[in-house]
Design goal:
- 30% of the residues lie in helices and 27% in strands.
- By secondary structure, the protein is α/β, with parallel strands linked by helices.
- The protein is globular.
């Protein structure tokens, strides 16, 4: 569908153990099948090392973004800070729906260190508020709508919302809670779907001719109860289960031979 965006706010990977490495491979394959429009990174996405993210971006063309993760010398960002998605103009019910340019950027919590191997570069996270100011300046005049993927705690999300009135919608991450905070004033609404991928947020925006949001509807759907099963993703899930079984069988065999 031309006007549907698929985004993630971060921490879609987690853990630094060998079994987590197997899991990450299949998570990345699944996200590639979903044809995501933007994937922000969170601190847990670095636990297997930044090379995992680099490989995912190169092999599957995953649209990974982050405005405030830099290489150690601060010469450049680790990922692109944002993407601009252009929707197609379509005709529906004898009405023309015009094309839109939608800017989507991502930020994460400032961390003293990102958790990954001592043998990899120690990437730096800068202040998410300062980086947001830079990004909004870059996006000014280029987009009809601006969406923030803000991997921040709940308190910082509220500060974020009040500080940046240029943002039209904030999708929050990091919190364990699933919540929707609507706002009928000039400030953006916040949608969070909680942890462990249990819920999928569904957000519908209606715009006027000035690209102002005049209607906002959001609800979180249970992935297990409310969402139809995808045959392609089920195949990936089955392959993952088999890979995990083989991993534990091999480990058991190693222990038995000692």
């Amino acid at each position: 569908m031309e006007h549907v965006l698929k985004v993630d706010c971060g921490d879609f990977l987690s853990g630094g153990r060998p079994i987590d490495s197997i899991k990450s491979q299949f998570m990345i394959k699944g996200y590639a099948k979903l044809e995501m429009d933007a994937i922000n990174v969170g601190e847990r996405d670095f636990m297997l090392g930044p090379q995992v993210l680099i490989d995912a971006k190169e092999q599957y063309d995953l649209p990974l973004i982050s405005a405030n993760v830099y290489y150690p010398d601060m010469s450049k960002r680790f990922l692109d800070p944002y993407v601009i998605v252009k929707s197609k103009a379509v005709k529906r019910n004898n009405k023309k729906i015009r094309s839109l340019k939608i800017g989507i950027f991502g930020v994460m919590l400032k961390r003293p260190i990102l958790v990954y191997s001592k043998f990899t570069p120690k990437l730096i996270t800068t202040d998410p508020f300062e980086e947001t100011e830079k990004v909004l300046s870059e996006l000014k005049g280029k987009c009809d709508i601006v969406i923030a993927l803000a991997h921040l705690n709940s308190m910082d999300l509220q500060k974020f919302k009040m500080k940046f009135k240029e943002i039209d919608l904030i999708i929050g991450g990091h919190s364990f809670y699933s919540e929707i905070i609507t706002d009928s004033t000039d400030y953006a609404s916040i949608v969070q779907t909680g942890s462990k991928g249990q819920y999928v947020g569904n957000i519908e925006l209606k715009l006027n001719k000035r690209n102002e949001i005049i209607d906002f509807n959001a609800h979180n759907k249970s992935l297990e109860i409310d969402m139809a099963e995808s045959p392609e993703l089920k195949t990936i899930e089955n392959d993952y289960d088999e890979a995990v079984r083989m991993y534990y069988d091999a480990r058991q065999n190693r222990h038995s031979s000692h």
